[in-house]
Specification:
One of its GO terms (cellular component) is plasma membrane. The protein is about 75% helix and about 0% strand. By secondary structure, the chain is mainly alpha-helical. The protein has a single domain, classed as Growth Hormone, Chain: A, CATH 1.20.1250.
């Protein structure tokens, strides 16, 4: 199985699958970022308090925490196919329903459900993609998923800017509903790609169907008997408990830890980008802070491009360690000098965004490479869930921190959290460059050296 897929030529099928699977990350970036511009008009119309703004900003992230943990386990148990399109339908329905929302709590509930649907897509789509990709393209195209996230974020701020310009503050309903258009687009694309992973099928006693799918999509005929990975043993079903057993404990703690430390700062910056830029002196509630946040999102995306190459040349470990170390510098400088000129502060934010490219492209590459098929989606779901705890806390606490502590202490805390992420990477980041998927997911067994017998 490993050699058939890992050594397969890269074809248009892989490209279509990568685009189809990027729908979840792109919608995540769009849905979480569009609320930043929607709040500009929503706040006065619905008379939102600071607490209301915090709840709306964090609701989708809390939903992702629940959805990631729940649907990751289900994806490993029942397959990648079951929720492959249903989650997009739920996202579209919630986006449309947001247009008619008249209360804070209804918006909070809808965004919570949106978060659950987005989180469901990560373990489904990234596991499906990782289990179909050839070895040489695996790191790049798994990293491409986070590029799609930032593309969605940039698109959200561009759409928000245009709607604010031509529709005024009352356009916030159209902004929240606009995600349904993207849902429909990716729903159509997904109809022409593989619905299930042959690795998962072979491991669950469906080698004939796995061989049929390999022949259909990779144009390689294989004997179903050669695809059976369980060697006649009972099918292994993964569980949350297995992830935290000694075999995989260090790997899951590493994936969850660096992901959490990264996105806690990142999501707060993007969700409340206009408010942060206004704190530096840019006029608030205008096109300047909206386009400024769009530029910040664009640099987050641009930083992923060299990182996608570095993880396959320099390697996964040095890329993430060096990038995390460099991310500390700009937020620390802002924390130490919070009254720096507006343009210099904006430049520091752009530097942070660029250096963040390394961890970004490894957010889903590492969890998909470090765990075997029977717990791969579970690991992706857990890492996503834990990261969203940090993102929700960062998003919820940022407005309070800016109001009560000020810019300096807020960014010093961001620098400290980034430093924790750096230490986690130094401690736990493995190297998986150039390794087959099954090999990368295999944990080396330490065999103690035998003591010499006394003479």
């Amino acid at each position: 199985m490993s050699s058939v897929i890992d050594d397969a030529p890269f074809t248009s099928f892989h490209r279509r699958l990568a685009v189809a699977c990027s729908g979840g990350p792109l919608l995540d970036g769009y849905i979480l970022s569009i609320v930043g511009t929607a709040l500009i008009g929503m706040t006065p119309e619905l008379d939102l308090s600071t607490g209301d703004v915090q709840l709306i900003g964090a609701a989708a992230l809390i939903g992702m925490f629940v959805g990631g943990a729940l649907f990751g386990v289900l994806t490993d148990k029942i397959g990648r196919e079951v929720m492959y399109t249903a989650d997009l339908i739920v996202m579209g329905a919630c986006s449309i329903a947001s247009f008619w929302a008249e209360s804070t709590w209804l918006i909070v509930i809808l965004r919570f459900v949106l978060g659950m649907a987005v989180a469901a897509d990560y373990p489904i789509a990234t596991s499906l993609l990782g289990e179909w990709l050839p070895l040489k393209q695996r790191g790049t195209l798994l990293g491409f998923q986070i590029v799609a996230w930032y593309a969605g974020s940039v698109l959200a701020y561009v759409v928000g800017y245009l709607l604010l310009t031509f529709g005024g503050h009352g356009s916030w309903r159209w902004q929240l509903a606009s995600g349904a258009v993207l849902c429909a687009f990716f729903l159509i694309i997904r109809q022409s790609t593989a619905p299930e992973s042959p690795r998962w099928l072979a491991q669950h006693g469906k080698a004939d169907k796995a061989a049929e799918m390999i022949e259909r999509y990779l144009h390689v005929r294989v004997d179903p008997a050669t695809l059976v990975e369980s060697d006649g043993q009972a099918v292994v079903h993964g569980s949350l408990r297995e992830l935290f057993q000694p075999t995989y404990r260090k790997r899951i703690l590493f994936c969850c830890g660096f992901f959490l430390c990264q996105v806690a700062v990142l999501f707060a910056m993007l969700t409340f980008g206009p408010q942060i830029l206004a704190s530096f002196g840019m006029p608030g509630g205008t096109w300047m802070d909206t386009l400024g946040t769009a530029l910040l999102s664009m640099v987050f995306l641009i930083g992923c491009l060299p990182a996608m190459r570095l993880i396959d040349t320099l390697g996964r470990r040095p890329t993430i360690v060096w990038c995390f170390g460099l991310m500390i510098v700009p937020v620390l400088l802002i924390g130490l000098w919070p009254t720096m000129p507006t343009l210099l502060a904006f430049a520091m934010l752009l530097l942070y965004a660029f250096f963040c490219g390394g961890p970004n492209v490894l957010d889903w590459t590492y969890p998909n490479e470090l765990f075997p098929t029977h717990i791969r989606a579970t690991a992706v779901g857990v890492a996503t869930s834990v990261s969203r705890v940090g993102a929700a806390l960062g998003t919820y606490l940022l407005p309070w921190s800016l109001d009560h502590l000020g810019m300096g202490p807020t960014f010093l805390f961001a620098a400290a959290l980034t430093a924790v992420g750096f230490l986690i990477c130094v401690w736990g980041a493995p190297e998986t460059k150039g390794r087959r998927l099954e090999s990368a997911a295999t944990v080396p067994i330490s065999i103690p050296m035998a003591r010499p017998e006394p003479a």
